[in-house]
């Protein structure tokens, strides 16, 4: 690993703000999970939701990739549907994937959603973050996360998502006012939830808008963008009783298959855009300019092949940005069949890249 004069938290925060760093910070989406033998051992004795809702178990799962891979950030082990459950929907998580058995299909169901106190209803996530912070120490950034309103609405309306979004697309066209009401309710509840995670010690927040790429630009600007803007504004606005400023808490906005949405996504209010492997980091930088940081964008499948290919993938991603305002990551979650040694190679390669050398190469 290249020598550094900044702590990992300082590296992460500086990269999020496009400030100079000695090397890129590196972490991996879904880094706590099925590809790790120690996580598999944990799952043999505990269900997925039991781990999510038991702070000691969630902290253990969250810390596993930090100890095994040496990543520069720890994301709390949880699930984006925790907020849907807090709003009153039943949540089941069988091995086949999460299910909301009573999906939202009309205005009455939206009205029936409940407001919730994040400390009493979802306090186990905040408690897990506090435990992770104590275990990892002050020099390691801990990330909280949630779904963007559009993506959480997809699950709440569909009941489960396996690639088709027929019900929410029908609502979008036939009952747009109902969808707007649902998105507003989600934004309000998620903002309070994420504030609680920041208060517990989260140094940054990632918002997953996984299904944004299913929208046209016009649809994104009409439905997804306003609710995401509201979420970020309400989460980060400084208030008289002591709130948070966006400059203090970086917000990462991730979308899959959304290269056509880069410009409107840049208006959401996030300080970092996380893009998938279909989106060129160099092109994203050209479109977005120098003041918005980027995260990504290695194809997760590259880590299935070999340590050498994983290392090359890390170097190519960093070369596209020159390491300026860049958090190295995958373009989606790590795949369950990924060999641990390949994930280690990816992380260590990113941490070992000399940014002055990369900048010299890109200018040559």
Write the layout of secondary structure elements.
Blueprint: H1 8-16, H2 37-45, H3 48-53, H4 55-69, E1 74-75, H5 82-86, H6 107-112, H7 118-136, E2 142-147, H8 149-158, H9 166-174, H10 176-200, E3 204-209, H11 217-236, E4 251-255, H12 262-265, E5 272-274, H13 281-288, E6 293-298, H14 307-321, E7 326-330, H15 340-352, H16 355-363
Parallel strand pairs: 1-2, 2-3, 3-4, 4-5, 5-6, 6-7
Helix pairs in contact: 4-7, 7-10, 8-10, 9-10, 10-11, 14-15
| Main pleated-sheet profile | 7 strands, parallel
CATH arch. level architecture of the largest domain: Alpha-Beta Barrel
Radius of gyration based on Cα positions: 19 Å
User: What is the level 1 CATH name of the largest domain?
Assistant: Alpha Beta
For the largest sheet, list the strands in their spatial order: 1-2-3-4-5-6-7
Query: What would you call the shape?
Result: globular
Broad structural category: alpha/beta
Question: What distinguishing features does this structure have?
Answer:
364 residues, alpha/beta, TIM Barrel, 2 domains, seven-stranded parallel sheet, 16 helices, 7 strands, globular
Task: Briefly say what this structure is.
The protein has 364 residues and is α/β, with parallel strands linked by helices.
Could you explain the architecture of this structure?
By secondary structure, the protein is of the alpha/beta class. It has two domains: 1-31 and 297-364, no CATH class; 33-70 and 73-274, TIM Barrel (Alpha-Beta Barrel), CATH 3.20.20.210. 50% of the residues lie in helices and 9% in strands. It is built from 16 helices and seven strands. The protein has helices at residues 8-16, 37-45, 48-53, 55-69, 82-86, 107-112, 118-136, 149-158, 166-174, 176-200, 217-236, 262-265, 281-288, 307-321, 340-352, 355-363, and strands spanning 74-75, 142-147, 204-209, 251-255, 272-274, 293-298, 326-330. It has a seven-stranded parallel β-sheet with strand order 1-2-3-4-5-6-7, sandwiched between helices. β5, α13 and β6 form a beta-alpha-beta unit. The longest helix is centred in the middle third of the chain and has 25 residues, at 176-200. The model has no long low-confidence stretch (mean pLDDT 94).
């Amino acid at each position: 690993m290249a020598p550094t004069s900044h702590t990992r938290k300082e590296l992460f925060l500086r990269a999020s703000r496009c400030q100079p760093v000695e090397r890129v910070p590196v972490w991996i989406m879904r880094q706590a999970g099925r590809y790790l033998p120690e996580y598999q051992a944990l799952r043999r004795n505990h269900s997925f939701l039991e781990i999510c809702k038991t702070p000691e178990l969630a902290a253990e799962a969250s810390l596993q990739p930090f100890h095994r891979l040496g990543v520069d950030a720890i994301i709390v082990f949880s699930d984006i549907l925790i907020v849907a459950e807090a709003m009153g929907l039943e949540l089941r998580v069988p091995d086949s994937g999460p299910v909301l058995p009573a999906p939202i299909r009309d205005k009455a169901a939206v009205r029936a959603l409940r407001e919730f106190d994040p400390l009493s209803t979802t306090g186990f996530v905040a408690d897990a973050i506090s435990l992770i912070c104590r275990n990892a120490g002050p020099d390691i950034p801990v990330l909280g996360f949630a779904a963007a309103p559009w993506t959480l609405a997809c699950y709440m309306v569909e009941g489960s998502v396996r690639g088709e979004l027929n019900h929410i697309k029908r609502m979008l066209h036939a009952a747009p006012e109902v969808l707007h009401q649902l998105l507003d309710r989600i934004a309000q509840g998620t903002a309070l939830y994420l504030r609680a995670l920041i208060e517990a010690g989260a140094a940054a927040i990632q918002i997953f808008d996984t299904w944004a790429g299913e929208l046209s630009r016009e649809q994104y600007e009409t439905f997804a963008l306003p609710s995401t803007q509201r979420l970020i504004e309400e989460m980060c606005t400084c208030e008289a009783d002591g709130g948070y400023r966006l400059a203090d808490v970086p917000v990462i906005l991730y979308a899959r298959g959304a290269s056509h949405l880069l410009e409107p996504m840049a208006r959401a209010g996030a300080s970092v855009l996380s893009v998938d492997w279909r989106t060129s980091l160099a092109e994203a930088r050209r479109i977005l300019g120098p003041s918005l940081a980027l995260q990504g964008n290695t194809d997760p499948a590259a880590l299935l092949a070999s340590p050498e290919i994983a290392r090359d993938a890390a170097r190519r991603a960093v070369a596209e940005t020159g390491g300026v305002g860049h958090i190295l990551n995958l373009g989606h979650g790590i795949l369950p069949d990924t060999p641990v040694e390949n994930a280690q190679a990816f992380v260590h390669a990113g941490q070992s890249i000399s940014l002055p050398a990369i900048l010299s190469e890109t200018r040559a």
